[in-house]
Design a protein that fits this description.
Layout lengths: L1 H29 L7 E13 L13 E15 L2 E11 L2 E9 L2 E28 L2 E25 L2 E8 L13 E13 L2 E10 L17 E11 L1
Length: about 240
């Protein structure tokens, strides 16, 4: 599974070389500005989740809305190709609800919301497809590594109409007493449009690391991050 995902993520780099060889001359005439490069300050909204099934799928009802913000360097390799390393503050996590019934009536419930915050280092290869002067569509992919630096854990339990709530900082580590592993890694796939200095894009982060400390069965794809991001950025 991991080998197929990594092969898909990096195939864009090989395809980019072929595209470049075939279209360099025409792209320069369509978009005289070429690929100027620069530094993007970007931010946006994340729709985060954690996989719950052996095949890596998740429940839509567990999705958590959070945020992303960071800096990305656009380093041109050609008029059509860039490498984009970055440093991003990325919210991840999920929310889960359980209901317990007696005779068809809800007797108790518990709700868990985990909102971890990661410092993430993505390195993407991006292919730019010129449309008009100063406007490019882009697609790309690449790996990321991430370090957990904060976040909140919130649990609410209700029994017979009485509720109790616990809120605390997330505990990172590798023991059974911890909430999440501190390190995460995976691959990104992204697409969007550049209009002069403004970038609008979407990114899908596909985690490859199990993030629950007691989840040791690496034969399946449970307990891995899935994050859909919508971003806007400005180039300096």
């Amino acid at each position: 599974m991991k080998k197929r995902i990594l092969a898909l993520a990096f195939s864009s780099a090989l395809m980019a070389g072929q595209v470049y060889a075939q279209t360099t001359i025409s792209s320069t005439s369509v978009n005289p500005k070429g690929n100027p490069g620069g530094i993007y300050i970007k931010g946006g909204v994340n729709f985060a989740n954690i996989s719950t099934q052996n095949d890596g799928s998740y429940r839509d009802g567990n999705m958590l809305t959070t945020f992303n913000a960071g800096v990305v360097a656009d380093l041109p390799l050609s008029p059509l190709l860039s490498i984009q390393p970055g440093l991003v503050l990325n919210g991840k996590g999920a929310k889960v609800s359980h209901y317990y019934t007696i005779g068809g009536d809800v007797a108790a419930s518990d709700k868990l919301k985990m909102n971890p915050l990661y410092l993430e280092l993505p390195v993407n290869i991006v292919v730019k497809l010129p449309v008009t002067t100063g406007t490019n569509f882009f697609v790309g992919a690449g790996p990321y590594g991430a370090l957990g630096i904060g976040g909140k854990y919130k649990a609410t339990a209700t029994v017979a109409g009485a509720s109790g709530e616990t809120t605390r900082n997330i505990k990172y580590g590798s023991s059974n007493d911890d909430d999440l592993r501190r390190f995460d890694y995976g691959v990104n796939a992204l697409a969007g449009v550049e209009i002069d200095r403004v970038m609008l894009g979407v990114n899908y982060g596909f985690g490859l690391s199990k993030i629950v400390p007691n989840a040791d069965d690496f034969r399946n794809d449970k307990n891995k991050y899935r994050v859909l991001s919508v971003n806007v950025g400005f180039r300096f």
